[in-house]
Design goal:
This protein is an alpha/beta fold. Helix content is 39%, strand content 17%. A five-stranded parallel beta sheet has the order 2-1-3-4-5, with helices on both faces. Helix 3 links the parallel strand 3 and strand 4. The longest helix has 29 residues. It starts with a strand and ends in a 13-residue tail after the last helix.
């Protein structure tokens, strides 16, 4: 099972379109997929205020359960002003019980223009340490996202190429998912002794 996290807060976003395309690719490979969209405030803004913790826990519990049942994740990360969107960063603040530890993840960066790589760099830099998520070496940057993945068949060389790269990267992610399942079941991690990264 693979969980796809759509990082845009925007309803009917290009991120949701890309996530749906990824889910269809996984289904063609007969790999089950859960989709979680962070649009419209699915997760309240994280805080350590005790008065907010009940609502936060209720919103987070079904997502955490999905992640724990998954072998791998896909993070669809649109570039907003050169950054990952706040909803995606907020998602990582909820990951405090090692839900992501030793789970491989594929980053898909998006841009309506020629960018899209900044969210991938930002996530690799700032989201892995305490979550202990394992980003695979592959990543896919979907540039000019409004022009690709719209029709059943590709309409340009860029469209065909990005479809190929997505499918290729998912194939690698699936293999990492199988391999890292052994790490998660090995008992090598001791979160009581070493709960956080350095």
């Amino acid at each position: 099972m693979i969980t796809i996290i759509t990082g845009s807060q925007r309803p009917r976003s290009q991120s949701a379109k890309v996530a749906a395309f990824i889910q269809a690719l996984l289904e063609r490979r007969t790999v089950g997929a859960h989709a979680v969209t962070l649009e419209t405030g699915l997760l309240p803004l994280w805080t350590d205020d005790p008065d907010a913790q009940v609502a936060q826990a209720a919103a987070w519990a079904p997502i955490a359960d999905m992640i724990r049942a998954s072998d791998a994740l896909v993070l669809v990360a649109p570039e907003w002003n050169g950054m990952a969107p706040p909803a995606l960063k907020n998602f990582f603040l909820y990951c405090t019980s090692h839900e992501l530890a030793d789970r491989p993840a594929l980053i898909i960066g998006l841009s309506s223009g020629h960018g899209g790589s900044s969210p991938a760099s930002e996530l690799r830099l700032s989201s892995y340490r305490d979550t202990q998520i394992c980003y695979i070496p592959e990543q896919v940057i979907v540039r000019r996202v409004t022009e690709v993945l719209n029709d059943p068949e590709p309409v340009s060389e860029d469209d065909a190429y990005i479809r190929f790269r997505l499918d290729y990267a998912l194939g690698i992610l699936i293999e990492y998912g199988a391999a890292l399942a052994q790490v998660r079941s090995s008992g090598a991690r001791n979160f009581e002794l070493i709960p956080y990264g350095m």
